Amino acid sequence: MSKASSKKKESSSSRVASSQGQASAKDVSSGVGSASEGPAEAKGGLFPVWPEWSEAEVNAEKWDGSRGPKDAKTGKSPCPQFFEDPEGKIELPQSLSIHSWRRPVEFIQEKAPIMVENELTFDLLSANKHLLCSELVRWIISEIYILWKVFNGTTSKDKQVSPEAGSQTWRPWEHIYSLCKAAKGHVPLYNPYGKYVVRLFWMGCWRKITVDDFLPFDEGNNLLLPATTVRAELWPALLTKAIIKLANTEVGQQQGRELGDFSVMHALTGWIPEHVPLQARYLDKVWDFLKETAPRFQQAHSSEERLSSCSSAEEWSSRPVEGKNESSAASKCPEKAKGYAELQMPQMVICASYQPLHLLEKTSLLGQMSDASEKLRHYGLFQLYSHPVLVTRTRAGPLVVPPGPPPVPRWKLVRPRKERVTTDEQKEIPSEKHDQFIEVSSPFVNYGPIVVPTSPELDQRLASLTEHEGAESQGLAGRGVGAIRPLDPGPAGEVTKDNKKNEEKSSSGERATESCSTVPGSQEVWIHLDHFTTCFQTLLVFHKPNIYSNHYRKSYFKSSIAPTSAVTNSAAPPKQQASLTTPGPTQVGDEKSCHFLFVDSLMPTDVLVSFSSLVHWGGAPDERKDSCSPRLGLLVARPFSWKSLKSQLPVLHIQTASTKAAVLSLPPGHHVVCFSSWAPLAYHIHLCSMTPFVCGNEEVVMPHLSKDSLRFIDQAMVILNALGRVVNVFSEKNELPSAMKELDSAHIPPWLDTGGARWEHFKVFNMAVFHMVTAMLERRLTAEEVFAVQALLTDPYIGTDAQEHISPPRVEVPQQWKDREPTEKEVWATRVLQAGWKGLHVRKIIRARKPGTVENSRASKTLQEIWSLVESGAQKHALFLLRYIFSHGERSAVLYPCYEDVESRIFFRDYSVMLPSQPSNTWFLIFREVLFVSNEMLLVPKVYSPIPACILHVIDNDTGEELPRVFERVEPHIYKPNQKGYTFLAEAQSGDTPISGGKWTLRLIGSCDPPSSFSRDTPVCNFATKEFKGYYIPDNKNIICRFSVKVTEDHMATIQIQTSKQDAYVKLVVLDHEVEVASSSGKGFVIIPVFWFLLDEQPEAALGPRMEGQSDRTVTQKGVQLTESPQETAEEVTSSLVSTTTDQLTTGPLSHKYIIQAEVLHKSWPLDESHAAFIQTLRDLEKNEIKAEKQEDPATPTGTDKQGSEGRNSAAVKSTRKAKEKEKEKEKEKPAAKPTSKLEMQGLDTSRPHWTLRFVSDQSDTDSAEVKKDTERADEIRAMKQAWEAAEPGRSVKAMQARLQFISKHLDKARAEGTQGSPDVPLSPLSGEVAQVEPPQSIIHIPMDFTPFIRRRLEELRLKDDSIAEEQKRAKAEQIQSFRLIRDTILEHRKQEEKSRKALMKKQLEIYEEMQVLLDEQRKKILQLRERHRSQVQEPEHRRKELKVDKEVPRPAEPPRAKPVAAEPAKAPKSSGKKK
Predict the structure, then answer these.
(1) Interval 347-377: pLDDT, tens
(2) Are 924 and 1025 in contact (CB under 8 A)?
């Protein structure tokens, strides 16, 4: 005691000395205002996240101001020599109204302020009664008491903790640092400058919280922060101030509560809080959990009842060991007077909490709250004092051992009386079930009611509630504060016994524990288990992270909560302010981030998942109240598989604004869980488990999924060990049967049928063993080895297939057996011999299975030699054995417990290319390769791209179909081997910002290794893009553009078109001889991923001239039509088009004429009036270009020659054909013309309606394709006109004159009729010359020659006679007949379809009728069972009514009361007469 007192004196003297310089500052005026007052810069700004804790930084902290304490004499209102929190004043709950802010020297007058005066005990209740109306303050006080009890074992003044306690003792003031070094067991000192540093746990790590000593007061000069009975002690107020800072980051003031999931114990210790809702239906599970985790009550005998005062400290020592403390409370217990007791820290602390009384709740919940309030008062608690309580012990029985039965006298033991059983049935002895109780500890046990401030809205409901509980309130007021006692006997009576014991102790000189108002500290009370879920709503389980061996932590802070312009007055160096954010993922804070958990275990796994979120930071309190409540942080855990795009149901769901934890329970096996987390500003994830696990992104987790699971390895080793035991005891007669049974139980899966499935499994298992031995020896087995394996497996046919492949010894065939067939007798004789030899072989195998025979010893020796080699690589061969069973016995493999692990096993391979730099708003191709698959397998392609707008297409080159996509992702598909493979194509589009480059990766995820291989070892990413742009000029066919494609070799290309109108429906088509062979439609953006342009010289790739309707044979999938690949031969094409009639597959010229055409669908690209003039200008320019091209042609002699018109006409036809041929030759020699007009050459105006066509090829195949604008029709018209002019000079002049004559005729007619408007409107785009035309009378009328327009197909004219007419009639009749045949075929087909539909409808109706009948039968059965059950339930009631009726029937009509009165006296005399 002297040592402790001297230490106390030294600390107090040093603290007093440190406060001398501040004694003259008492007159400093205090700032009066609300809780939101503070520096002007801090009202609406954001502050940096509190830095992580560093002892070196705390040791180097500057605790005083720059001016020093001597300047304090001149201070009036806030002075520079006082430290002010840069974050401003804290915001207190609404239940506490702030009137002013003061420093300690302003309200502590009797002596100098001090941080800690009594280091052995404290009282946070006596001086804080005016604060208990605040829920937040009650929770802070309760959890400080709970931690003191957990670490130190006691809380009362009469049970003090030794200062020499071990390192596991906890003192709340050790979280505060001021004028001291960061060391264990330090005591902070009072700082006149007012700067303090508090160490609290927040967002996954210990953090440094800086506070000042401005303290809030109300109008009655009461401190609004907790304080001890020593007014000069400051540690409770400063610690609470820092805790409230953390609590203000949570979304509070919701649903009448001042805090949500915020935990004070988590902030003070870092323990992980698990919230378990309490429900009555899970009461048994709650009891089992508490019975396993909390200490059990040991019944005390009469001689030990005096030790009940120290039972709590003894029980805490029964928990798992983590640290040992010595307690000075041993002096209270005589048995522990030798020294301090050794306390052991619990590994798990359990608390229970209940919600406060909400008068604005729904009416349906008021009944539950009233029941809870009644039960809580029954046990000395009050619902208005909502706070957590500590679960200390559990018991299943009485507090005191019941006395034994009284001793039986000896004379009764001489001839004991036998018990008589009145019934034939044996009487069942009822099992004695003890009541179950839970002991809780709380400082508010037997604490009186408080006055809670209410709003005017609650007056009406509060009045009704007061009337309902008026009698109880008066009784409580008469007994004084803290004098609440149980209302009825039962479990509450046990509390009364404890109070009586305490009263007995008070008579012996100890302090009474009757009321918390006199003696502070926690008190214990036993609560019945049935009432536990009624009183409390949540079970808080605090897990200590250091007891778990495996951890994973991940934090993410949004950059916006830590701006560089944050206001701070901290004296820390700039380096501390630079590292404000915790490194995290690169994704945006508003998006969900995914983390993957991989667990592989043979036992069930429990993973503790802790999630912390930050939803509010900075800003003034007024702004926080006015703004809408932010969304809570969310963590969702779902089972995940890379082989499927289906989202499974979540197995864990955490939603919080602070910190919350839950336990994720996983069964044995191979599991992957995806955690999706989201928070508005920041989040922290912490996973703990005793089972090893892997957690991270895909790069970390996926490599572990390619390994065999532990269950699979264990199952394989069990089978191999059982097989090895059979081999070892193969010659032991007694042990072989048991070893065979063990082998059967090892390799036969559970729930396997005893029929054919079992026989099939045995066959697969025997083959697996044989192939395992063969693969191990890496050679064919000899005859002795095959016989030994057959004897081991009892299968004479195993290995016969392998022996057939061995070439038999060469035997000379007799000459008479050559070149002749055997007779029936010879065949029969051969079969008899074979049956004999087979029977002999089977008998040998049977003898080999019998120990002691020669065959058995020989087979056993061979098996021992083989098994010695198998044991050298046991795990390798065991896995081979089980994999063979799984691959060849699918029916039985599904029944193995480890089958799910095999299905979740994946393999993957990555293919990466480097992205070149791309400008903004550009479409480009990233990847295009052909994949060849050797075996049927499941593949899932996944793209990792730095560009968000990246889409992957997969096309089956054999069928031309594109595999379906789900949300722009290719769905999992079973890829089967084909001839031309699968083309993987990735396209992307840059946004408004250019792309600097990056790495693009395609990951192929499959079910086997290796997943697949591309045609090229190194994928290429350099593609040649031919880009064409132009304005949209609408026409009658709504065609946007037409381009012709000519190739010099087979060419694979990607075609894409993009329009300026994003919502225009566009169809992109590839035509071959004007027949559609590939098409795709879209909205503003259309792509044909892959199309093969075939060379004309390949006869096997063509099918002759295409007939009308042949385009219906092209394959269509999701609006995309693709033609056949260039490697396909004519026979394959013919086989793929089986439905095509033989009339359409006619032979013809082997040529291709490809046209790329884009057209607008549904008139979805209308042009407004602002573009009409521009479009008309474009049309005029095109016609002017055509006119200019005409003028550039060589002039032809003009004149008229009327003689020899017929010969000239015939010659004109010949010259026209020759001119066409010459024109084609000239076009081939000329270079390709650019598809741009003069206006387009000046630059494309993006504000006008325009389009862009892209033709993408491999960089090496650029020269093999020529793409140009399709001007074939215009060239043909131009050549035709030139031919006509050459054949008939002056033809154009005549046409012009005829046109002018027509115009003048209509003009005269219009003038004569007096119409208006027609003469002013130009009749042609080229009517610019009409206004300058001379009057009609000056026009020379030249008769037109129509002979050139007469169509002639023959060189010489033929007269149409009867034979020609008959021939034409016959041809026409044949056409009509063929049409009728086709029509009849179609009608017949329609009739068949109609019949099939009717049959299907009839069948469906029959099915529905059968289902209805079955449903009616089942309903009838259910109703019968229901009636039977109802009759059984109502049968006792019916019997009771019948008995009642039977009793009432014999009664007379007189009043019912007269009969029993008259009957009783009548019977009495008779009985008395008989007795006489």
Answers:
(1) 889 999 987 765 445 666 777 778 888 888 8
(2) yes
pLDDT at 1353: 63
Report the run of H or E that residue 393 belongs to, with start and end.
strand 389-396
What percent of the chain stands above pLDDT 70? 68
**What is the average per-residue pLDDT within 1308-1324?**
54
Identify the sign of the CA torsion 1401, 1403, 1408, 1413.
Answer: positive
Cα 726 from Cα 741, distance rounded (Å): 10
Amino acid at 482: G
Task: Using alpha carbons, list the distances in angstroms from residue 754 to 102, 167, 348, 746, 767.
Answer: 87, 65, 50, 16, 20
pLDDT band at 270 (very low <50, low <70, confident <90, very high): very high
Q: Report the 10 Å Cβ neighbour count for 1438.
A: 10
Rounded to whole angstroms, the Cα distance separating 293 from 663 reads 15
Q: Write the DSSP string, 596-627.
A: EEEEEESS-EEEEEEEEEE---SS-HHHHHHS
CA distances to 64, 177, 210, 224 from 194, rounded to whole Å, are: 8, 12, 10, 18
**Please, which residues have CB within 8 angstroms of residue 1097's CB and are 6 or more apart in sequence?**
1150
What's the Cα-to-Cα distance from 105 to each of 24, 232, 234, rounded to whole Å?
Answer: 9, 10, 11
**CA–CA distance, 1240 with 230 (Å, rounded to integer):** 91
Contact in structure between 547 and 671 (CB atoms under 8 Å): no
**Cα 694 from Cα 1206, distance rounded (Å):** 95
Tell the residue number behind the tokens 């291709």, with chain if given.
Answer: 1152
Helices (H), ranges, 527-676: 529-535, 574-578, 621-626
DSSP 8-state code for residue 431: P
The total number of residues shown for the chain amounts to 1476
Of 153-162, 990-999, 1305-1314, which gets the smallest average pLDDT?
153-162
Q: Report the relative pairing of strands 550-557 and 593-601 from DSSP bridges.
A: unpaired
Pairing mode, strands 1265-1269 and 1120-1122: unpaired
Contact 435, 397 (CB under 8 A): yes
Q: Give the integer Cα–Cα distance in Å for 657 and 617.
A: 12
Q: Which residue has the higher pLDDT, 272 or 302?
A: 272
Q: How far apart are CA 77 and CA 1357, in angstroms?
A: 123
d(CA 403, CA 744): 58
Contact between 520 and 228 under an 8 Å Cβ cutoff? The reply is no
Q: Which helix (H) or strand (E) holds 373?
A: helix 363-378
- Rounded to whole angstroms, how far apart are CA atoms 865 and 777? 11
Helix (H, G, I), strand (E, B) or coil at 214: coil
What SS3 state is found at 1079?
Answer: strand
Torsion angle in degrees (nearest 10) through CA of 1026, 1032, 1036, 1042: -10
- The single-letter DSSP state of residue 129 is G
What does the radius of gyration of the chain's CA atoms come to, in whole angstroms? 49
Tokens for 1017? 């070892």
Residues with Cβ < 8 Å from 331, sequence gap 6 or more? 337
Tokens (6 digits) for 47: 């502050």
Cα–Cα distance for residue pair 1182/1326, rounded to 1 Å: 12
- In whole angstroms, how far apart are CA 68 and each of 49, 79, 643? 29, 12, 69
List, in sequence order, every residue forming a beta bridge with 638; answer none if it has no partner.
Answer: 674
DSSP state of 262: -
Burial class (CB in 10 A: 0-12, 13-18, 19+), 74: exposed
Encoded amino acid at 1079, one letter: S
User: Angle at the Cα of 520 (from 516 to 526), degrees rounded to 5?
Assistant: 60
- Residue 439 has which token pair? 């002991």
The residue that leads in pLDDT, 781 or 1208, is 781
| Element containing residue 465 per DSSP (H, E) | helix 459-468
For 699, what's the count of Cα atoms within 13 Å in the CB-facing half-sphere?
3
